[in-house]
User: What shape does this take?
Amino acid sequence: MLKMLTNVVTASFIVVVIIHICISEPHCSKFHYEEKLLEKMIRLEISVEAMKKEIEESRNQVTTTLGNLQTERSTWKETLLTMKDASVTALNTAIQETKTQVKDELKVLSAEKERWNKELKECVKIPEVVLFSARHPKDTSLTNGKTVVFTEIILNKGDAYSKENGVFTVPYAGIYTFTVQFCVNPGKYFDFAFMANDTPFKISRIHRHSSSYFSCYSFDAITIVDKNDNVNIKIIACHSGTALGEHSDYYWNTFSGRLIQAI
Assistant: This one.
C-alpha cells in the first residue's frame, strides 16, 4: 500500500514538474510552434519572392542583352556585307586597272621590241641598190639660198629622194656619188653647191656667155655621208631672171646619185 502511494506521489510529482516545465518554457506551446513555423514560412515566401524578382530581373537583363547582341550582330553583318561588297568592287577595279596597265605596258614593250628589231635588221642588212634620178626644176628662175627642187622622178631605187623638197635622205652610211646637170640660158651665171646637212662638200660655178643656144653643164661630186644625212643642191649666188632652160625631148636639168659602197 505504501509502495503504491509512493508510486502515485512520484508519478504526480513528475506530472507536476512536466506541467511546470511546459508552462515555464514556451517551446512546449503549440501556438508558439505554429507562430515560429508561420514566421519561417513567411520568411521563406519573402525569400522566394526576392529570388523570383531577382530571377525575373536577370531574365529581363538576359533578354535585353540578347536583343542588343542580335542588333549588334545584324549591324555587324550589314557592315561586313558592305565591306565585302566594297572590297570586291575595289579589288575588281584594281584588277581591271592592273590589266589595262599591263596591256598598255605590253603594247609599249611590243612597239619598242619592233623598233629595236627593225633597227637591228637595218644594221645587219646588206644594203640594196640605192639609186635616184630626177629632172625638171620647180623654178627656172633661181634664188640665192634656195634648194633646187627637181619635181619629176625618173628613178628612185630605195625611195630616198623627195620630189617635194629636193632632198635625198641617206638610207645607209657609205660612199656616194652625185651628179647634177644644168642647162643655162645665154648670158646667165650662178654658183651652186652640193650640200650635206647644210654644209657644202663641193661648190661649182656656171658662167654662160652670150650666145643664141642653150648650153648644158654636168658636175660630179663624191662624198662620205652617214645614215639619215640630207643631201641637196643649193644656190649660192645667181643672176636675176630665168637662168635655166629645158626641153622635154632634148635637154634636161637633172640631179642624180647612187651608193658606191656602204661603210
